[in-house]
Amino acid sequence: GHAPRTTPPMNHLTSWTDLDDATWRACLDRALWHRQHRAWSQSAAAKALGLVFFNPSLRTRASMDLAAAHLGAHAVTLTPGNGTWGLETRDGVTMDGLAAEHVKEAFGVLSRYVDALGVRTFATLTDPEADAEDRAFRAVVDASTVPIVNLESARWHPCQELGDAATITDHLGGDVRGKKLVLHWAPHPKPLPRAVPNSALLMAARLGMEVIVARPDGFGLDADVLDLARDAARRSGGSVTESSDRVGALSGASVVYAKAWAGSGVYGSPDHEAQQRASHADSWRLSSDDLVQTDRAAFMHCLPVRRGVVVDGDVLDGDRAIHLLQAEYRLHAQKAILEWVWGLGAEG
Ligand code: CP
Predict the structure, then answer these.
(1) Is the shortest distance between the CB of 59 and ligand 1 below 6 Å?
(2) Which of 36, 88, 161, 247 is most buried when burial is the number of CB atoms within 10 A of its CB?
């Protein structure tokens, strides 16, 4: 038989928590370099990148395709269930439903076509064990014989994380240690996963910032994620605290990072969680008045964002908002990530 192409050891990017701080820092510096130089190259010529989106995307889809193009690689994008067979991720199930193909075959095949795979598999928000274990994403990693880049799993969004770290470092001018970042819970009509707030928390802790997670009671992040962030903060000289006092948290902030996420009741009592979430719609929506008490804070959001629900439109239209720069940095960060995945020497 034909042996799949493998180059052990493989540089998977499943979560930055699996990698050392030096790797993260080198990729961060390289993302900053890419924005300054905006270089197109052929450093990854004759390489192919597969992108598989089990969930919708604007930024990740466009910026990963273009990151590959900037390096001279070719990207192929597939959307399971939409022009591509529906894919089963669970092990041992009888496949008599919508999914025509299992990820074991699909990613086994794709591994023979491409040199790395980017994959998006959101949290179910119905199966707490599957989400805590990042089970769908792990199934894809297990089925693949080429490096995998996580394009947002149930737990983590490492491409967002690196782009966000570069955005803050660039915008605030280098060393951001000791500056205050408020990770601010925001209202939303739907329960949303926690991959982005988890990653934003780790990112700010790793940068050595004073991080406050401002959220209503019932919307705390997972204890194990907070522990990982506190470990990162200990290494970097930063700090991580939680507060349900949003006004107090915002005082003196340099960065306000807004994000909606589901409450902890979403798995066991979704109706109650929805009621709780709706009850905070007015009191937690960010307005330009909220930014007055900050230290002229930059406003960040990973996007997509609902105007008038998460944040008032005048904040997004105002001069403190850096959400478009933040989205731009996804391109630069992912060029750095692909270079690391493929072991390409930095040319700058
Ligand atoms: N922030 C982010 O990942 O955007 P998309 O979901 O549009 O890719």
Answers:
(1) yes
(2) 161
- Please identify, by atom number, the ligand 1 atom nearest to the C-alpha of residue 60: 8
Q: Helix, strand, or coil here: 265?
A: helix
Whole-number Å distance, alpha carbon 56 to ligand 1 midpoint, is 8
Q: How far is the CA of 333 from the centre of ligand 1 (A)?
A: 14
Indicate the pTM of the whole model: 0.96
Residues 6+ apart with CB under 8 A from 331: 34, 63, 66, 67, 70
Q: CA 159, 295, 245: angle at the middle one, nearest 5? A: 80
The reply to whether ligand 1 has any atom less than 6 angstroms from the CB of 324 is: no
